[in-house]
# Entry
Amino acid sequence: MGSEETRKIVPTHVITSSQDVPLVDAVETMRRNNISCLLVTRGDMPAGILTERDLARFLERVGGEVEGYQVRDVMSAAVVTISESEDLFAAYSLMCGKNIRHLVVVDDQGRAVGIKTFSDLMRRLGEEYLSEIKTVGEVMTRDVLTMQPDQSIREALRVMGHRGVSCVLVVEGDVPVGILTERDLARLVAFDRSAGARVVREVMSSPVSSIGPGDYAFEAVARMESLGVRHQAVTDEAGRLLGLITQTDLVASLVKRYAALEFMVRKRTRQLVRKNEELEYSNQQLRHLDEMKSAFLSSVSHELRTPLTSLLGFAKITGRIFSERFAPLAGDTPSLRKFSQRICRNLEVMTQEGERMTRLINDFLDLTKIEAGRVEWRDKLIPVTDFVLHACHAVRGQFEAKPEVELRSHVAEMLPQVYVDVDRMLQVMVNLLSNAAKFTDKGAVTVTAVGIDDEFVEIRVTDTGQGIPAQSLQKVFDKFHQIEQLGTDTHAEGTGLGLAICKEIIQHYGGRIWVESEPGKGSCFKFRLPASKPSRDSREAILTGLPTDGGDEADPLILAVDDSPGIRDYLEQLFRDDGFRIVTVGDGLTALKAAEEMLPRCIVMDLMMPGMEGSEAIRRLRENPATENIPVVVLSAYPYRSHAGGDVALPKPVDEEQLLQAVRGLIRGGRIKGRKCILVPNPKGHGNMLMISAGKLRYIRPEELQVNMTHRFSGTMFLSGGSRDHLTLKKLSEIDDVVVMILPEDEAE
# Structure
């Protein structure tokens, strides 16, 4: 089928006339403009139409004496119209039903905007379907009306009117010598006031255009258009008349083909709709079954945890007690020592299998939560090293058990930061590194982090193991699919969910994860995360706020952005009652201008707004040096509000105290460009240590301190009194860009 534009009625230029115009003048207008009809209008509304057929019938009735007649005496007063929104098939059906060759095209108010003729239909339909009509002989009219050259015009008019045809072929013997058409008769009226007395030879068009029955239909159309005719005689090689091909014949064939295709398309569309409905129903059933399965397995998994905890706990206790108290009683008795060793091994297997089942349950619950959207993502802007190096440290024990495998890491400098949940990214990295350690017996596992065009951060985990079979490459991220180790018959241990969880986590952040592997040469797991703005130099000065428009520190200026007038009024009252000055605007674009002009101390931003959304407004605020450090509180019901780039994200309905506290805190601290902080808690593990830091605060265990010291950390390090030792303090004092603060121990400890 063609495009919708091709099939629609397209208005064309139309020449109009008043019904009071003399007939000879109207005919002269038609001749001069080479048109087959004249639209008669009253204002913009069609009142009638004057066609060549009307003129031919009028001549036959009055005998050719046309002097003194007006357009109103000849025109067809019942105008057949069609809407400009209708298609060509509807136009053709209407023309055939009314036995006319002209349609007045009107707009939805009934005003005339154009005229459509068979020539238009042939031209429009022919663009698509003419090549599908093979030869002239397939579409021509064989029963042709003919006359002798010496017959009178009046007789020709009578025969044409009786047969309802638009032309008559003039022949001598079997050879066509001319053609008399309604157009010839219409032009005669303009020159001869006594046309009826003439003979056919004096009026006919000669010579007549002819074409062979074996010629292609599109050749006939091209010849008609080049000669400006609507009829062609069909002759054999000797020039004898075989038939007549007209625009009507061609359009009828085109529309027949069009209608057949339209019927086929509609039939196929109905079949596809029915199939889609069946598929949708099946998908709904499958989704329902999947939800039931997930709910059931989730419930079972939760229920398994309690007895599994007891089994693991008692197995460990029993194993420890047996090893310490009962195994020594076997002494040197071989049979007792043998049974003692077997019991210890059995208890170890019970413990290992219980721990494996625990991992399976935890993985399944993680995947179920992610798929159901029930995970609480604690996203924040972090350096890539925060989870890459931490993950390498976390799996070091697995590599120590394989002395022939080296763990390497290469992290590019000045990488952009990423906005992620650091725990979830650790989960991804640990899973990939654990898999690499499991399937690599010699060589190295290398972790690489690089930037891609400042748009993405790409992390690669490359191993020198056996690789992944080609048939498994597309399945490694499927649920419950376990990677097989090449060259062995041993089934891979594990839950089969780790890589599926990795995929869900990476896709949640708009990233992509994939694997490349060559059998016998190892594998490379890669994932990309969208990069945030590059981190600021840690040596830049700390900013504690921006100047306001002159107000006192006691009544700082707030800019509230929300498209709801009711919420703007509410926020204005809330902040004014709490001692703030406030300006409210209704869209993101206005907010950008207001922020740059007024430099508010804090911005409260809605997300879902017409025009510029809140997330786009925040992005532009951060790109403008004048506003990049104004803190932003995102206040929205949108579930992913924490991803919009604000400093704080709060839900609607508004928690007034929480909102006011967030704004006060941001105004006091500003958007800090300061240095990172590390807090090392008391190794005794008593109580909690509360630390409020304007910069980025990270917690590490005392045993992780040496690792973090060697990775270009610059900033402030807080040590609890119980964790200090002279060697650590000595090494810290040798680093120029580290400030060490020792926090006193709680005297109650």
